[in-house]
Structure formats: structure tokens, C-alpha cells
Amino acid sequence: MTDDKDVLRDVWFGRIPTCFTLYQDEITEREAEPYYLLLPRISYLTLVTDKVKKHFQKVMRQEEVSEIWFEYEGTPLKWHYPIGLLFDLHASNTALPWSITVHFKNFPEKDLLHCHSKDVIEAHFMACIKEADALKHKSQVINEMQKKDHKQLWMGLQNDKFEQFWAINRKLMEYSPEESGFRYIPFRIYQATTERPFIQKLFRPIASGGQLHTLGDLLKDVCPSAVAPEDGEQKTQVMIHGIEPMLETPVQWLSEHMSYPDNFLHISIIPRPTD
Amino acid sequence: QDLADGYLSKTHFQVRKRKIPPDLQERNDNIEQMLLTHVEESMDDSEVAGICATEEVVRYEYHVLYSSSYQVPVLYFRACFLDGRPLTLDEIWESVHACYQARLLEGPWDTITQQEHPLLGQPFFVLHPCRTHEFMSSILADSQKQNRHTNYVILWLSTVGPVVGLNLPLSYAKLAPEQNMNADSF
Question: Which InterPro entries match (chain B) (predicted)?
Fold first, then answer.
């Protein structure tokens, strides 16, 4: 029987083999070779692609290079979404490696946030953690921590240090003995087919009678089309970190074990492959 | 408590002042007022561009959304030139009146950051809400002492709005005097 702690490690060390190709209209001095990289599911594109940027800048003139941005099959990729979420949402049922196109021009102002430095990523990451704790603990745990603890969460993510990260993050996963779980579960549900980027609502992990709410309960409440079978057939998959958890799984357990480092459960609803 | 997934929205056009010496300021204010009157009357982008050919016209959009996580309203805003080019935060900042610049730097609003609009999925600037309860509580406590009715959203918006160029007409203050919402009822 797998220990619950193994799940934490499996989530942290998940990787997606990716092939980066320079957009054909970018002006180069010689031909640009594609660049291959294993991307951490739990991190952010602009945090882990310095080598990609350097590789392509070598074949370009300085004046042709401005802010890097990434695109998959015509869709600009939102760097502020975790990599694993982007893959599950857009490419999970396609052949590996994941093929991402790299751009240095015509930044899509209407679609993407700017990311001029690592500080922007850190600010975004910490804002997510704070919002998650507002939901879980009315911000009590995060506000009690010192600045150096906040820094340790970020450094753990940036340097891929599981132990360093979880030394602090475990406090964000605790709850008082009188409760059976968090106040509300931090989650977002994404569907590529809707204009709305995600659904986020207040949802309690414990029912009034004391029973644990399940993933199925959450979906029924927030996104009923994902669970209600049409024609008796399930047309969609519910995916977290590349797997389909059983709908009977308690959301409290999912929140503690399968959240991303930002402490949110990022859940993708994608079309079920037909074959 | 399930609030509807909508938002309050306001769009307005503003003539962007270029940097001018203080002695010319007053004269320019009058010209701006005149131009603004013309601009508000016409909702057509092309007409606006014609009238204000010598100044840059900026289209501001303000959305008030509700954050269920923090249980406070949040102000999202963006600005673009008529050709669609969005303003950077620095460019927006330049149009904020000097007295509000000082207030924003010292105030409890933390920072303005670029974030994804949760319903539209597009980049907006956001006034961070995490300290809202702090400054709203003291204002509400005072008004309750004086037995004045307060509309929470109007109160909040009139406090944070001007800092980012959103000015509420006085008529808003006369709306719905029977309403008496406070932070707890959110």
C-alpha cells in the first residue's frame, strides 16, 4: 500500500518531455535547431526556460529579441498557469514530446501577462499561496509565518527542492483537531472550450452531517456537465496531474496531497479520447 | 452564499495630458474639460479620434468584481489607445494625479499588479484586495457611530477609484439611502 507521502513526491517530480521550436517567421542568422527539455509539471514556463531562451538567442540578432512567449497549436500559453495544467488542458491526449513554439516578437498583449523578471513569477506564486490560505485558514497560517518562511517556499520551487519546500508547506496543510479539514478547498476547474478561463467557488470539504465531500460532490456542485453522462456515456475526463482520480476521493485528501505548490487543486475537464 | 457571476463595468475616454509647465496647467485644464464633454457625448471611437486629434485619447475600462476568497470587492482596470495598443502600468501611472500618487505609495492598498481577469481571461491591472478590510473597517465604524447609512461598494469605490483615475459622480452618493451594508454582510 503506497504511503500518502509517496504521492507528494510523485506529484513534485512529474515531468513532461517537451520539444521547443522557434517560430518560422522569427528572423535568424542561421538555422535554429529545436531544443528538448523535461519540464517540471509543478513549475512555470518562464521559470524553467532560461536555457531555451539562450539557445534560440544564439542564432538571432539582438534587435530581433524582445520578451519570450510560448504557443501551442496557435494558442498562446499562459506562463502563470502551472506547466502540468497547461499540458493536461491542451495536449494530454496527444503524442509526446509536447511541441511548443517559441516567439520573441508580437507579444499577444490581449492574451498573456507580461513576465519581465523572476520577481513577477514569485509575486504571482506567493499571491496564489496567500489566496489558498485565505480559503483554508482565513489567512491565519500564512500570516503567522515569517518572511523567511515565505521565501523558503519560493526558493524550494525555484530550485526544485522538495524537502525545503515541504518543511514549510506542511504547515499550510494542517488543520486544528476540532475541524476535520480546511474551511474551504482552494481549487480551480478549467475547460478549454469555454470563454471563462476557470471556475472557482467556495466549497467546504465537510458536509453539515460530518461526511467528507468527494471530487464527485465538488463537480456536481460546480460543474455538473462534467459528471452527468449524456447518452449514458461519459464524454469528458477529469484530470489532475495527468491522472483521473476516482470521483469517490475526498476533496480534503486531494487538497492535501495533489495540490500544486501554489496550494491550489488545478483540475482540467477535457474531451475523452474516442479510441 | 452564491453570488451571481457578473461584474460592474464602466468605460470612459480621457484625454491624456502631456507634461506641461505649471503656469500653463490651468489653461490646459479648461481645454481638457471642454474636450472631455465632447468625448463623453459621443460613443463612437472614430468620432472621438476626430475631435481630439491633437491629444492622445485613452479608453479606460473599470470592472468591479467580487473576490469570494477574500470576501471583498476588487477593482480591475485597463487602458488602451484608440488604435488598440494597451497602456503599460507606467503609462497609466503617469495620468494619475500627483496627490493620488503620493497616497497610493503610502496607502494600505499594497501594489497594483497585472492579473488575468477571472471571467474574461484577459490581462487587467488589479488593486490588490488583501488589505481592503483594514481600511474599510475604520471608515465603516466611523459612519456607524454617526448613524449614517452606507453603501459598502460605493464607499469602497470612492476610496480606491480616484487613485487609479476612476472618479464617481456625486449622484452615486445619493443612491439607495435605505441600504445599510457593512463588511460582515458580504
Answer: Atg3/Atg10
